[in-house]
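A sample copied in:

***
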Amino acid sequence: GTRGTVHFHGHVSRQTLFEAFHTARVAVFPSYAEAFAIAPLEAMACGCATIYSSRGSGPELMEHGRDGLLIDPDQPEELAAAIVRMLSDPQFAKQAGDLGQAKIREHFSLERLTECNLAFYQHCADEFRTRQTARTSRFPQSSVASETH
């Protein structure tokens, strides 16, 4: 009874992709490796229940059984069980989607990333000033100048 319910669309625009994430019951990413989990992150940001690889950045992005499901891509039975769980337990899928969306908002929103970047650069500037002050106090300009004359 599920024939015709899975659709492969090929390359689509970002707008079309996000619309699909908003309406899909589950997004599945059984990747072996990614630099960072951009596609699963985007699905989670749209509130879509997400299944992702337990390899690479998967455990960094989501907590298995809470805001998504992590699977070993070499274990097709794990992938199948995760898909069945998401599709057969709509309450769990909704909860995972909601928690995933909240996590992305909390940790990866523009406001949060801006705040983190500003704090990082402020820390760098403070460290630079501290080092400059320490260097100046070890080698005061007046003593250097008097030694050269």
